[in-house]
Amino acid sequence: MRLANVANLGVKELRSLSRDPVMLIFIVYAFTVAIYSAAAAIPETLNNASIGIIDEDRSTLSNRIVGAFYPPYFNAPKLITRAEMDAGLDDGSITFAIDIPPNFQRDVLAGKVPDIQLNVDATRVSQAFTGAGNIQTIVTTEVTAFARRYRSETVLPVDLALRMRFNPTANKSWFGAVVEVINQVTLLSIVLAGAALIREREHGTIEHLLVMPVTPAEIMVSKIWSMALVVLVADAASLAFVVQGLLGVPIQGSISLFLLGAAFNLFATTSLGIFLATMARSMPQFALLTILIIMPLEILSGGTTPRESMPVFVQDVMLAAPTTHFVSLAQAILFRGAGLSVVWPQFLALIGIGGALFTVAMLRFRKAIGEMV
């Protein structure tokens, strides 16, 4: 393998990418808008949930219940009718609807146990489960305080001293931004590497390369380093300007160490992209294959859901995926400030998996090149 050929072919790939406006827009979008959107709209908790209240009692107690719902968890409640409740739940303008029956305050003061109906639009799964429990707590607290004529604080037998490390305010955007950066690194590296090979085939330039004094190994390595470089630069810029700048997420560890881990991960994922491109005959087929690979890599690697909550079989299988180890080292470095002495096992795993994927992709690429001759 001649390094001059690898360098020149890699520069050719960068020039070809620079002439593809759609792909350039996709790269910019993935490392800016996509990351900001994922960080700002990760709905694990209630956030400005819409709520409507049918107040058929019009009493002091019902007014206290209406006034107990306020931002940021709920929008200001809307006083609605039954017909408006049904229409609001149907068109999605209302997520929660509370129906306070007539004579509700009188029944409470009489020692009875009246019912309040809560209707939930359960198609909004992220808010439906959490919101129903919160509403029940809020209504129970207001009714209890009204019946006792004073608001008491619950005295627990044990005082829990809670200390939250690495994210003291439990800001969900901190977690969402970093995880989305990790996901975009995986997605873009596979797509760019595979698209570089598919583009050669569709434009007919792969035949030009075959008559030049270059080897299949030089062609493949040039595509890997050039596309990995693009993703790595975009990753560093996104961390600096979007994650730390726009979103204000504090990075605890060394960004240089994280980028080194990202480079090893890119070695594996770009090889995987080349392998998928040799299996596909066109760009649409490559896109379908990418979807089948990307979804398990992102969902089961520990970024979206903790690996400990998955079946043991899935945990063992996903150890063969490079993203599992990349997510682990990225979270350790960026969230907890870990050094090389902590994450070296993940580095070794990425090197081993990357070498295996590179070998398989190279064998498949040589076979595909041979079929073209």
Label this structure with key terms.
single chain; 373 residues; mainly alpha; abc type-2 transporter like fold; 2 domains; 4-stranded mixed beta sheet; 4 strands; 4% strand; elongated
Specify the oligomeric state. Answer: single chain
Profile the largest sheet. 4 strands, mixed
Low-confidence runs of at least 5 consecutive residues: none
What is the residue-averaged pLDDT?
Answer: 86
Query: In terms of structural class, how would the helical and strand content be classed?
Result: mainly alpha
Radius of gyration: 28 Å
Helix count equals 15
Termini separation = 20 Å
Helix content: 55-70%
Strand content: under 5%
Basic shape: elongated
Number of separate strands: 4
Output the helix-strand order.
HHHEHEHEHEHHHHHHHHH
Strand order of the largest sheet: 2-1-3-4
As for the number of domains, it is 2
Question: How would you explain this protein's 3D organization?
Answer:
- This protein has helices at 3-18, 21-30, 33-40, 60-67, 82-91, 104-109, 125-148, 172-203, 206-210, 216-246, 255-279, 283-299, 312-318, 322-334, 340-372, and strands at 51-55, 78-79, 96-100, 117-120.
- The model has no long low-confidence stretch (mean pLDDT 86).
- A 4-stranded mixed β-sheet has the order 2-1-3-4, sandwiched between helices.
- The two termini are 20 Å apart.
- The longest helix is centred in the C-terminal third of the chain and has 33 residues, at 340-372.
- Helix 3 packs antiparallel against helix 8.
- The chain contains 15 helices and 4 strands.
- 35% of the residues are buried.
- By secondary structure, the protein is mainly α.
- The protein has 2 domains: 3-41 and 167-372, no CATH class; 51-148, abc type-2 transporter like fold (3-Layer(aba) Sandwich).
- It is 66% helix and 4% strand.
